[in-house]
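> run fold LacI family DNA-binding transcriptional regulator
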Amino acid sequence: MANMTLRDIAKALDLSVSTVSKALRDSYEIGGETKKRVVDYARANHYQPNRMAKSLKEGKSGSIGVVICSIDNSFVSRMLDGIDGACSAAGYDMIIMQSKESLFQEKSCLKQLEARGVEGVLISPSAETMNFEHLSALRDQGIPLVLFDRICDDFPSDQVGIDNHKGAFQATQHLIANGYRRIAMLNIDPGVHFASQRSNGYADALKANRIAYRKEYVRFCRCSDNEGLKDCVDESIRSLLELAEPPDALFTATDQLSTHSLSVMHQLGCRIPQDIALIGFSNTELAGMLTPPLSTVYQPAFEIGQRAAEKLIKLIRGKNLQDNFYETVRLPIRLDIRNSSSRTKNQAVV
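> ok
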């Protein structure tokens, strides 16, 4: 069966081809009721726009670039699901590229996306991205840009993420409320803004409860690849457990650090939470089925991706724009408390 055309939709709805085209582009010239009729009919009949013809006529590619650190974890996958849903609903394709936590690779990704003529860029900056001059340069060329997940107060831009400080504070506070006092933290490079915010949340929770911040309980993993990260987690946990006064609880600041830590503890024969309690940022759907079930700071990954894409599409279409005004959206997190951070009956509260 031949693909449905704009002319087919126009004939079926007794509208002009121009009206149908404008309705599908969400033009302000078309009323809401007419837009809904056209969009509903197009969806019901599986209308697919001719992207090549559209790009040639309008000078637009109909595509959005997405730069992520890596696709190999569940949190990123859920964000991409949210982005895909918003892009599909608005008629955009997405081109996904991976920085692999490398600033050099991130810059290369952006150059490739620019060469492909993307209409806008969604980016979760790499661990090596300490300044944002290359992103400012991209925006100065007229390409709309939205940061997602790894948001940064130091870079004026539209952004969508969470309150990283609050998530870390609440996780650490939960451990303290359960009677733990020797609380360690495992984080990535402190130069990364979101990681710094989580470190500050951990430190501020200790301070609020008059618990000393002990440098020997803090470890950082500066690794750009998954194998290197696993090795760093292994080394960090071993060194923590070998301290004269080892920690009785551990807060892990990223999804991968959390799951790797649980694995290493099992390999070392640590009983969780009897020997050491564990809570961390993680979005794995298996958290409740791990042994023991893992307490987590849950981030709304799908919604982060969806809201970021919706915001970028508004920027591309020139909606709700104000000169030199940028909005940062922080979506709420929640604590999912499970057995890994509980206080067992034979543990004395200090």
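The mean pLDDT is 89.
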